Amino acid sequence: MAEIRLHNLAHSYNRRPSGAEDYAILEMNHVWEQGGAYALLGPSGCGKTTLLNIISGLLTPSQGEVLFDTKVVNDLPPERRNIAQVFQFPVVYDTMTVYDNLAFPLRNQGQPASKVDSRVREIAEVLDLQALLQRKARNLTADEKQKVSMGRGLVRDDVSAILFDEPLTVIDPHLKWKLRRKLKQIHEQFNLTMIYVTHDQLEASTFADKIAVMHAGQIVQFGTPRELFERPRHTFVGFFIGSPGMNLIEVRAEAGGVGFADVNLPLLPGVLRRLPTLSGKRLHVGIRPEFVQVCAEPREGMLGAEVEHLADLGTYKILTFLLAGQRLKARLAEEDPAPTGRVWVSFPGQWLMLYADDLLVEGEE
Ligand code: ATP
Q1: Using CB atoms within 10 A of its CB, is residue 100 exposed (0-12), middle (13-18) or buried (19+)?
Q2: CA-to-CA distance for 148 and 137, rounded, in angstroms?
Q3: Which of 4, 41, 69, 76 is most exposed by smallest CB count within 10 Å?
Q4: Is any atom of ligand 1 closer than 6 Å to the C-beta of 199?
Q5: Ligand 1 touching residue 56 (CB < 6 A)
Q6: What is the pLDDT of residues 188-238, one digit of tens each?
Q7: Given pLDDT bands bounded at 50, 70 and 90, which one contains residue 1?
Q8: Which residue, judged by its Cα, is nearest atom 23 of ligand 1?
Q9: With a 6 A CB cut-off, is 49 part of the ligand 1 pocket?
Q10: Are 330 and 345 in contact (CB under 8 A)?
Q11: Could you tell me the strand order of the sheet in which 359-360 lies?
Q12: Is the minimum distance from the CB of 13 to ligand 1 under 6 angstroms?
């Protein structure tokens, strides 16, 4: 298997095609390339687990196809898909030793004992489980059990993709970093496609080269952590990625740009040229708090705003201010003086995104 391809995929648990909200997955087309380290990131209930279960074969989609390379696998049972799945809670046999747990999938396949032994020892070494091989699984800590669970997926040499469904949920926070680094190492060593489901953007960014952001049953953007931060292609990505998320303001089209209340915001020429094509659509501008410029003194082209709140987060500060009735945020460096009362703000054109019906308006060349 070289790649996992989703074609017109949709899934409804109640099979009533009576409206979008019935669908856990909505008209999805996507390609996961062989060997990629991917994260599937989105809030609770957006359809992440449903999607993983469809890829692994635990669930049959109501519509569309899952292809491994060019082969449709909808009717292939999970055990014949060359895919391993690691769940939130470790799946291990408590009464068996770690060794027997790791050996289980290989013995099931009828592999010879010598092959089982060498593979189990190889995987135990990768996961730092050598010293625990003879221990009963019930005597392991939660992170050791989860490593065994991962090992049971990795041990099969016919596996070409591993799906992780929030695998670090039960792990102590101080061990999470270690285990995430281990997963990265495994990815490099084994050339496996890995899809890692999480609702935590930090976890997604530290594991994945590319992140698929899911919202309401759809992948709304697929890109590097940097692309998601700098050019969110959907308002949801702007809002969901970042801490705090992007400032989003509903605006109307005006001469030279867009506006709200008595504020006019000039747009870059390429985006401005697109404005006449957007009539009838809901318009928003978005700007990340990191890109808002703030001054204590009035300056040419800056807008007057009222300080509402300043949160000092140790290494940076988050300023909440009111601009013409809109509550917005700016991120300030720790060494910046704490503003009070009135401030002046501006939004640099290259960081001001325009959205029409929630989708990013790309500027004309
Ligand atoms: P979480 O992060 O909370 O696990 P998720 O993003 O993985 O959420 P899913 O578990 O895939 O989301 O759920 C997507 C939608 O499908 C939700 O509205 C959920 O209530 C619904 N759903 C999930 N499983 C079932 C089921 N077995 N029967 C009916 N509806 C379901």
Answers
A1: middle
A2: 8
A3: 69
A4: yes
A5: no
A6: 888 899 999 999 998 899 889 999 999 999 999 999 999 999 999 999 999
A7: low
A8: 50
A9: yes
A10: yes
A11: 263-266, 257-260, 247-254, 283-287, 353-356, 359-360
A12: yes
Report which protein residue has its CA nearest ligand 1's atom 17.
45
22 Cα to the center of ligand 1, angstroms: 11
Cβ distance 247 to 328 under 8 Å?
A: yes
Task: Supply 153's token pair.
Answer: 């997926």
How far lies 270's CA from each of 103, 267, 349, in Å? 60, 8, 11
Ligand 1 in reach of 42 Cβ (< 6 A): yes
43 Cβ below 6 A of ligand 1:
no
Residue type, 170: V
Q: Which domains does the chain have, with CATH numbers?
A: 3-231 (3.40.50.300), 243-360 (2.40.50.140)
Sign of the C-alpha dihedral computed for residues 200, 202, 206 and 209 taken in this order: positive
**Dist. CA 45 → ligand 1 center (Å):** 5
With tokens 């990013």, the residue in question is 360
pLDDT (tens digit per residue) in 34-47: 999 999 999 999 99
Q: Does residue 173 have a pLDDT over 90? A: no
